[in-house]
Amino acid sequence: MQIGMIGLGRMGANMVRRLLHGGHQCVVFNRSPEAVKALSGEGAVGASSLADLVKKLERPRAIWMMLPGASVEPLIAGLVPHLGPGDILIDGGNSYYVDDIRIARELAARKIDYIDCGTSGGVMGLERGYCLMIGGPERAVQRLEPVFATLAPGAGDIPLTPGRKKPGGTAELGYLHCGPSGAGHFVKMVHNGIEYGLMAAYAEGIDILARANVGKREQSHDAETTPLRNPEEFQFDLDLRDIAELWRRGSVISSWLLDLTAVALTRDPTLAKFDGRVSDSGEGRWTIKAAIDEGVPVPVLSTALYSRFSSRGEAQFADKLLSAMRFEFGGHIEKPDGK
Amino acid sequence: MQIGMIGLGRMGANMVRRLLHGGHQCVVFNRSPEAVKALSGEGAVGASSLADLVKKLERPRAIWMMLPGASVEPLIAGLVPHLGPGDILIDGGNSYYVDDIRIARELAARKIDYIDCGTSGGVMGLERGYCLMIGGPERAVQRLEPVFATLAPGAGDIPLTPGRKKPGGTAELGYLHCGPSGAGHFVKMVHNGIEYGLMAAYAEGIDILARANVGKREQSHDAETTPLRNPEEFQFDLDLRDIAELWRRGSVISSWLLDLTAVALTRDPTLAKFDGRVSDSGEGRWTIKAAIDEGVPVPVLSTALYSRFSSRGEAQFADKLLSAMRFEFGGHIEKPDGK
Amino acid sequence: MQIGMIGLGRMGANMVRRLLHGGHQCVVFNRSPEAVKALSGEGAVGASSLADLVKKLERPRAIWMMLPGASVEPLIAGLVPHLGPGDILIDGGNSYYVDDIRIARELAARKIDYIDCGTSGGVMGLERGYCLMIGGPERAVQRLEPVFATLAPGAGDIPLTPGRKKPGGTAELGYLHCGPSGAGHFVKMVHNGIEYGLMAAYAEGIDILARANVGKREQSHDAETTPLRNPEEFQFDLDLRDIAELWRRGSVISSWLLDLTAVALTRDPTLAKFDGRVSDSGEGRWTIKAAIDEGVPVPVLSTALYSRFSSRGEAQFADKLLSAMRFEFGGHIEKPDGK
Amino acid sequence: MQIGMIGLGRMGANMVRRLLHGGHQCVVFNRSPEAVKALSGEGAVGASSLADLVKKLERPRAIWMMLPGASVEPLIAGLVPHLGPGDILIDGGNSYYVDDIRIARELAARKIDYIDCGTSGGVMGLERGYCLMIGGPERAVQRLEPVFATLAPGAGDIPLTPGRKKPGGTAELGYLHCGPSGAGHFVKMVHNGIEYGLMAAYAEGIDILARANVGKREQSHDAETTPLRNPEEFQFDLDLRDIAELWRRGSVISSWLLDLTAVALTRDPTLAKFDGRVSDSGEGRWTIKAAIDEGVPVPVLSTALYSRFSSRGEAQFADKLLSAMRFEFGGHIEKPDGK
């Protein structure tokens, strides 16, 4: 089918490619024209403006937006005057599901259908396909089924979960209509919250491996420092590349994130090109807020988020305050290396 | 090659089967004779006692122990008088690596080689193969290579990590000599610590999905209760089976644990047969202790462990104390349902 | 001065008493008339309705509301038609500061001043005085100074912080104009967030003391259970009452909450009358949300909140899921007592 | 009575002063002679060596050691040859209670009594008195009662906990015989574990206050950054000095640590002289290990410890790994400022 795509960054451009390979017609627009030009060369129809994109689509139109969260609403405001009843807008980015609920209601008043679609898959999605978590009105989701089916991985060689009986369900193809407006981004939000927790679990554990030789180092001895009592228990020089590779094979903790960890460690086991200042991009935060509203305890997901905050130095004032208290009650002076 | 196996529980019995299929000769012993009898019928050589098992093995012997941690040392004490120089003992269970270091030293004095082998794979290991994390002296590990190679999954259809150059390495076959005595169980310990974190991340996140409809419930209003401010944001009735199935396909959080989660939810999305009293079996605890000795912050792995403690009611006195303080400063009476 | 008080529960009634003792005139109203009658007998002027209360106050009026958060806005809606320019409304409860900002703006349009006042002190406030955290327009706060000064503890015998130079500041008297609308409840919210953290720190620590004799108990031994490796290190029968009393005297962790802990443990060291289902009443949740918005890592405050959730069984589905995963990968059956 | 003191650092020297003021005779020794000389000028008897100190004490002797944990055992080894039956050794530092149990047993074989005494009070102890948590044999503890009574704060003006009936108990005087060998340092260990949790609760909360004006700052907008959705809710410039002072008066969270926080913030609300690299000195770590052995969930105390680790950059490899994973799955490049 024909679909418009606005936002041709890392994700958007690859999704267009996957759609083109799947035989769909894509009319594409991007703030900077280079990306439009590049995809035009690969078979997409380039648009020079929003108005041009809308004009090049047959009614009822379907327009997919693949943009940073903060850019979605301004774009919708610019698009809506050009759209009409029966058109469909899809937000495939990482927007807050609470906004979806409101926006869908506003657009419904103009008879425009709004779909929120959480998209997972990253840079490998072009090849592997994208996992799609979809919210919105049934009729619009059904109309877009060919597009979802192409973007998703399909059944591939991942066996069906034993006991699964629902023939015709789409979850096993890698896309799912999760519920009404907001449900898609809600499920994607939690997906990312889980992702933060999984990543932190690997990172913490592998850090324990990386320091399994601390018993070989010199220890300082003073009232501020606890010497390691059992240095003979920490004499292991472990090969993180081999261990990551090993765990991919038959272990309980094998996963796609572990595959990527193995890639990163194989490239450079010291990870020297990274500073360790870890971004967080919204869904992790919203996941915690939703959990708190629901009264669900989420200590793992929360501490994973806070580790990211701390990695960027966001705890520094609190840390200074701890040192200040220690100075007040014990006269403790900070050690230069804090050890 | 020929190998003895002591301990024919869930894990041990299946490992014998996999070894038999791989053409090895297995002499087997178990406290209760039924398991011995069963495996004898499948091609193993049954032994009627430890002494009998040792007698039936050619020298130098290799004996694999697959037992609960607390049973290993008593067994070794019983075995050692029957063993001689050049024999190899393998502990394939979940023992504490600190014990391995000591035991290996003690046995080395008798010229017996000791191997600590962390074994992951669970009930599916018979078919999938076991991921083996091995510690101990080089010569003993080399002698057992045929056994490790059979137990491990082998390369299978899991592609090699891109950039990996080490030809002849065994990590890609699913077993690895990680280092000297203790290294195998150390790596397995951290593996399980990570496992706890991963499991908790999924469990917390899926719980958020499970309660995404709290906005539909009645709220009570009093000074002890915060009403949900935004019930309209929590109106989703999500199908957990479908979502677990979906995430297995193309998402960033796909993993073997997620596959198992999908199995469990497909069988019964209410998980009614479980009470939610979650055991922890040693490695999770030791992982935290090792991290603390190394000075590695592990908030995710720790809170995952504590969630298991709490699931069994272990926090109850602390909770009572919180209620008691609230009563003292605010006259707050516990609500019958604690809400 | 003259002040109206609406809401004569635990907090409101005692605040009226403290104001009466301080020589102020109080016109009081409550949904149930018994409380009005009781305070009338102690010198307050009773009102039979909101309209009656408003009528009995001289203009410009000052009306203090002491109500559960959910009741504040309906009350304001009912009051406003009776009020006029220059009147002041004070919300002394635990409302969300975000609401204060909006309500203050709405009332300002009617020239009614709105003050948000966080009030700490609990059941002992009548005698000790209340710690007041105040937000709102300067002129209104100044007009109410006599009321704040009476409700607050005053300097008492708590020495001024050394180095403090600000003569005439009110913080040392126990009340403070923290900033514009919302600032009072914001500071109170964080105060309560800290309170949750402090309480949990004591509760967790004292629980460690309470179980310092676990080494005396029988241990079960199987693959699901880690035996305590060092029972000889956990043979202490500690007297929690004595230790709480001891720590009140010269230790770094002495505090009012510890005083209360000592009271509770002295009354009954087993805390038998509590079930350990701990309520949380809004500020703890909002504190975490504010921290996340600010990007401040708050693992301690968060886990303190989640412990309360868990104490009420809110983690149960997540816990069941953990048991379900363990069953799938390891065939682990839940132990009846979860140990 | 007469007592020897070895170790005249911050704590030891002030304890000697308090003992001298209390009429006791103190024979003092220190590695560096300046401290001995200084205290000799204040009435103590200086010793030039361990042997000299022992010689100057009448039998049966009582010798108090006030040293960093790692120095205690070497000192005991040097002292013991000079001691005889009936002598008492007191370890007043922060040793691991597990060592106490062993050392006490070893010394008992020589008929030397060993007392482990946890000492809280910090630099203010000279004036306020020290809170003493004592473990060891009854007869030795009784013999030292005059010393404990002088070092402890005494009843002072802290009222007895209501309901407390135990006349003659010493907890209300600020010292307590907690139990057999190890019990004193066990209670002190948990005391410090709680201290870490309390400190972190204040630090996290006050950090939220410190950033309550983030809504005034410019925001960057891209796919890596979640813009603050509600900047109007974070416009507060709060005076941390005033708020700390305020909370000391009538609030639920008043405490000695809060008093010290107020001192530190009053001296410099920016805490510019601290880097925020926070030491941890043993008890916090041992507390977590004890909790894990007991199966007590301690998420608050653990995350407080880990925050200290992280403050010293100990999480850096784990953080790099997170960034590396994000690069692999999403092509995310670290932002220079990590935001």
UniProtKB/TrEMBL annotation, chains A, B, C, D:
InterPro entries: 3-OH-isobutyrate_DH-rel_CS (IPR002204), 6-PGluconate_DH-like_C_sf (IPR008927), 6DGDH_YqeC (IPR004849), 6PGD_dom2 (IPR013328), 6PGDH_C (IPR006114), 6PGDH_NADP-bd (IPR006115), NAD(P)-bd_dom_sf (IPR036291), Pgluconate_DH (IPR006183)
Biological or metabolic pathway of the protein: Carbohydrate degradation; pentose phosphate pathway
6-phosphogluconate dehydrogenase C-terminal domain segment(s): 184-336
Keyword Manganese in annotation: no
Pfam families: 6PGD, NAD_binding_2
Alphabetically ordered keywords of this record: Gluconate utilization, Oxidoreductase
Signal peptide annotation: none
PROSITE patterns in the record: 3_HYDROXYISOBUT_DH (PS00895)
SUPFAM superfamilies: 6-phosphogluconate dehydrogenase C-terminal domain-like (SSF48179), NAD(P)-binding Rossmann-fold domains (SSF51735)
Segments crossing the lipid bilayer: none
SMART domains: 6PGD
Domain of life: Bacteria
Protein family (similarity comment): Belongs to the 6-phosphogluconate dehydrogenase family.
Protein name: Decarboxylating 6-phosphogluconate dehydrogenase
Organism: Aromatoleum diolicum
